[in-house]
Amino acid sequence: MNFYEKHCEKYLRQYEKTESFFRADERRIKALKLFSKLSTYAVYAAYVFLLVYLAANKDMRIVRAVIVPAAAFLLVTAVRSGLNFPRPYEKYPIKSLVSKSTKGKSCPSRHTACAVIIALACMYISLPFGIVMMIIALLIAASRPVMGVHFPLDVVFGTVLSLAVGVVGFWVI
Length: 173
Fold this sequence. Notes:
By secondary structure, the protein is an all-alpha fold. It has a single domain, classed as Up-down Bundle (Vanadium-containing Chloroperoxidase, domain 1). It contains 7 helices and no strands. Helix 3 packs antiparallel against helix 5. The chain is globular and about 50 Å long.
């Protein structure tokens, strides 16, 4: 059994406990679903706000604020298509806490990667704004395995890819 398989097995044991906690009270699942939707909308709204702000101020940093996240998105999309790892609900007889029918493409988590790269774009423009967005991004990352739609390693890989692309794209070159 390789490292990823061991990781998946360990996740399965933990997910059973997590699932029991949430299914014990329907309000917990509703709160998790609400958080998932609102946090995702907040990240994308923040990104639109950032781009509008930069465009309105004719700030040339808009070029990096568009190109770097696009590069991260394309990289993550290519890697996940190439790996095409199954999702937890495909690999094991579990039911995710949110309805999701996507097959494969579990690793890396694109939700996580996009939230992290957008947070880095915000950080590139405004450190306080970026820190707030990074906190939201990390909460999104944590929520994906809790909901049963990604393994923890999927969100770690998505985070690391976006951090690498973001650091190089925003601060190195």
